[in-house]
Design goal:
- Keywords: ATP-binding, Helicase, Hydrolase, mRNA processing, mRNA splicing, Nucleotide-binding.
- With 138 residues, this protein is mainly α.
- Helices cover 34% and strands 0% of the residues.
- It has a single domain (2-127), classed as Rossmann fold (3-Layer(aba) Sandwich).
- Helix 3 (87-98) packs across helix 4.
- The radius of gyration is 16 Å and the shape is globular.
- 13% of the residues are buried.
- Mean pLDDT is 82; it is low at 16-33.
Length: 138
Amino acid sequence: MTDRKRKVDIGDLDGKKKKRKSRFSDVPPTSADGGVNPLTGAPFSARYQTLLAQRQKLPVHQFLEQIQDAVKQHQVIVVEGETGSGKTTQIPQFLTLLNAASDKMVACTQPRRVAAMSIAKRVAEEMDVQLGQEVGYT
């Protein structure tokens, strides 16, 4: 039973300390129309491309593959990182795209209503979707 509650360092999932470059570049699929959003079926906007370049510079981006491995291996994961590293905005998007073909949902908690509203707005912009459709808050 104690094995279920253990701290997993996503930087050391396989027991070896090494930095792996993520296979998930977050780049939209290339096609003649410049990429289609898998959530909406519409082409990605120019604003999406601008935000994507900013997102790829966030520290959490280099750990996306390790996060995927951790989610596959464990029922619950806890991610710890510095303020502004992308934990709140990037990980839910990544998990949503991993589950895009299924009917699973990703939920985030935020203790302040105003923060929840602004985060939902930002994530919707970054995902190039309409607030209240694929991304929302209650």
